[in-house]
Amino acid sequence: MVKASPVLHAIVTGAPPAGGVGALVAAAQADGWQVGIISTPSALPFLDVDALIAMTGYPVVHSFRSPTEPEPLPPPDAVVVAPATANTIAKLATGISDTLATGRCAQAIGAGIPLVVVPFSTRDHLAHPAIVTAMSSLRAWDVTVLYGEQVCSLPAGGPTSPVAGAFPWRLAWDHARTEYTRAQCERPDNHQRKTTP
Ligand SMILES: Cc1cc2nc3c(=O)[nH]c(=O)nc-3n(C[C@H](O)[C@H](O)[C@H](O)COP(=O)(O)O)c2cc1C
Predict the structure, then answer these.
(1) What range does the domain containing 35 cover?
(2) Whether the model pTM is above 0.85
(3) Does residue 111 fall inside a structural domain?
(4) Is 56 in the pocket of ligand 1 (CB under 6 A)?
(5) Whose CA is closest to atom 30 on ligand 1?
(6) Domain of 35: which CATH number?
(7) SS3 assignment, position 181
(8) What whole-number distance in Å separates Cα of residue 109 and Cα of residue 105?
């Protein structure tokens, strides 16, 4: 598969802001990136799949391909998981790859591909010790975890809502692009080019 420009994999999980992922797609495309969307099965009901296919030019992928099918998306240069459910955060910190989405994140962490995670649930849910530990582990592995009052205001308990307009899509994209640029600058072959006369 030919890569004309860098590729973002936008991973959406089963929380209401998933329906707004078009804002992330638009921000990345405005910077010349291609975007492929990977949805967990739980996120699908929140998505306008046809609109996202029209916007990205790629299928919205939600399951592993069969062995005889080609890869539906070009490989990623950066990955954003937004919104990231508590369930997915817990899986990421244990290396579980039971969905295409979690598998792609596990590969990204292993390969050192920039990964940005934007947790979204109630504050009570995300305060579970296992989730707090998971976020801390991800940060220790150089994953960017955008979480806190300054990032996105979350309800203490009760049902979550889409927080349309307030979800930090722009911030997530800015971090992904910055981490990608940093990774490019730190590539060993780049260093060699600079030092070779
Ligand atoms: C309407 C609705 C809203 C939900 N909102 C959230 C949420 O904001 N955060 C969260 O962690 N889980 C939320 N859930 C629960 C997740 O969808 C559920 O834990 C699911 O197993 C997550 O799977 P995934 O991580 O593979 O997407 C919601 C579920 C529904 C039906």
Answers:
(1) 8-64+74-149+168-181
(2) yes
(3) yes
(4) no
(5) 15
(6) 3.40.50.1950
(7) helix
(8) 6
